[in-house]
């Protein structure tokens, strides 16, 4: 048993501080003997006497308390000496005053705070220790469960203010009798423990590792350094070992990575032993926990990037609508022979290229507008294969095979073609000397679900598309990043890093799954799963593009209320509609639109409005307006996907959606077709009551 007799110094440490005022006052009087009057000296002397009486009282209290605890410790020495396991005597302030022989041999804790006993078992050991001290001080015993089935048994020692804390280990399960085998005793008995333990010198040189530790680290050679086994502390490992050995560490464990062939994340706790030349490291494999933590962090990062990409794409779509729209207005006024026509055509083409890049951003953030339909992949890939073979060049061949009973899927045909083109282009770039890219389709029935790359696919009927190449493959450290936006291994200027992230966004938005498997030197295989549709279902033919307003039958001028907060977009749309013979009323906000519609005599044939605007958004002001003009058709415009229209609210009747950026002809076609489908009514506005 070892007790601590130095705790009295905590109270005596205040004596030099209390003596400091007297020393300063004496020095001042020696230098300035006439600076203070006799009355001031008397008053100062009285204050000094009171001050030192207070100091003496504080020190006396500390001495009396220490003497009382020392007497109580002498009385309870037999109690702690009789403890068979690890036990400690703790005072009311939480200081460890004494410990049992076994506790002293395993880990010398005398003089430390009782919270150190809970550092490996509780997230906030100091708080837990204070709660235990209060409970036991009130006379209530404690039985606290710890890790590995151990329990902390604590109670107040009768007749004293001291507490007895001891750790009770679970009884080992009975084992069937086995032939007696003589195993020599080594070290401190660590080899038989199921816990991974390393024993090493304060210099970091290994002494011994038990089998559980070697199962995590591989063979550990005596004399090797701990730094050759683990890495990733972020500071010299020797500094951490020295802090623990000298008692300057707070007992916090660190997570490090192994240096062996198999990389693991290990939580390592270092402790000193009674032998000053030996230290112990306790290892816990936390690889699964770190993997989950990394997945959660990656999910948060991807979500944040997706939100950012969606917002940027929305703003860019407004700019591109204004650029391409005004370019169309200029091109309408010129013919091909005009010298400026070629420049305007270049502006229009580059605006379209920028719009394609924005669509990729929206695809990654899953906020693009999709037009899903029932697709027979055999027909789609048959048409696409000719384009793919021209795309990959002469040295590469694209081979397509199908399941003869292949079921249809529901997807946006154009976006699905974009996904396959991105995967084929990646395969082509991975085969510098050419080769074969194989696209195969087949029906798959999952009876109990499937887990791939930690993603669960529910049971059901699926169509599987596989795109494989014979390229150089992808290294494991890069494989987890291939779907990240802007991540690319190509040279600068050869790729945007959006190809695979775009494919991932399109597949997920369609309700499918995409996985990648790659082996260095053998090639890469992308596997896509889409829910299979009933083969008896037939695709509903998409309506053809509506006729342009110029092609509509002659009729009276129709009135359109145009609501758009972006002035350039509003200017282009209003000019385009007026060129096609419409009367246009402009409003920069939903509130302004409702003010205009307060005029019951104003007849409006169509609402054309942006979706996302400051104040009232498009769906909100339209619902308010339709209370009095319930049959008015509506066209919504937005750079986001169509399902953003009033999500969670009732559907708006007679409404269609136009995605930004749109051209002059697309806007005119949408307006003309919608007005043709909804001819004007005799009474549009509901007049107020007649007074």
Automatic annotation (TrEMBL):
Source species of the chain: Paracoccus alkenifer
PANTHER family with a match to the protein in the record: SENSOR HISTIDINE KINASE, TWO-COMPONENT SENSOR PPRA
Statement: the UniProt record of this protein carries the keyword Phosphoprotein: yes
Enzyme Commission code(s) on record: 2.7.13.3
Chain ranges passing through the membrane: 12-31, 37-60
Keyword Transmembrane helix tagged: yes
Residues the record lists as 4-aspartylphosphate modifications: 610
Pfam families referenced in this protein's UniProt entry, alphabetically: HATPase_c, HisKA, Response_reg
Catalysis: reaction(s): ATP + protein L-histidine = ADP + protein N-phospho-L-histidine
Limits of the Response regulatory domain: 559-675
A molecular function GO annotation: phosphorelay sensor kinase activity
SMART domains in the record: HATPase_c (SM00387), HisKA (SM00388), REC (SM00448)
Domain of life: Bacteria
Top-level taxonomy: Bacteria, Pseudomonadati, Pseudomonadota, Alphaproteobacteria, Rhodobacterales
Protein name (record): histidine kinase
